[in-house]
Amino acid sequence: MSEKHAAATGGKKQGKPAPEKDKARPAEPTRAPSGAGGESGLHRQLRLLYEGHSQRAHRFRYALLAFDIVTVLFIVGTSFVPRTQVVESLDVLFGIVILVDFSARLYISRRPVAEFMRLSTWADIIAIVSFLVPIVGEGAGFLRILRTLRLLRTYQLMERLRADSRFFRRNEEPIIAIVNLGVFLFIMTGLVYETQHWRNPAIGNYVDALYFTVTALTTTGFGDITLAGTGGRLIAVIIMIFGVTLFLRLVQVLLRPRKVRFTCPNCGLQRHEIDAVHCKACGTQLAIPDEGRF
Question: What predicted TM-score, i.e. pTM, was given to this entire model?
């Protein structure tokens, strides 16, 4: 019986080729979901524009920087002219563009809630409201310059500026110090103008506010323009304390020996004298490109 049973089952034990339907089939390619499990086409395209490294992304961020500068110039320029229908229409146009930019950045953010912990985010919200609400006008729109400062400090734009501009590579620290001081001047000038022009006859436009800001920052204090009220005095104190600090930082950068950015292959030190041959931290021989200056 055992032999017969073995003969009857031996073929199966030795193994026959598996039927075609039982053979493993190659896995079909799966598509990334476009919902919560993956990025949609719009989400991916926006992220590539705001955070990518392509030529298109670099041009887009340069365009954003140019738009921020135009916005600032528009705010300053309209302080000298009466409010007309054309100005009101341009207010709404600027507000819509800023709203679209703000919505896009919030949409692609990996941590949207954390965005509201940034000062520049609230500055954008205030700027959007001030442009889109006719009663307010574009008064608080000067806060948009905080977005310009944030854009300048992004890694992608800084790297691109170093790659595209020889002048920026040589003078990066002075340029950043000048930008910081300029942003502070513009913000304080806007704050002085918006809090004083409706009750202080000496502050009629942005030039008057800028004049006071500079005299307060340099502690010159001619006395021909003063700010009214307790709030005005507090603004003057802030201008003097923080303005002098930024001004001294600029002077320090301008007077100390210039350095170039070159990463030491041994210790990682990034800033060296222009004519350095060895790293001052570890002594490693350097090969800093001099671009034909020596």
Answer: 0.60
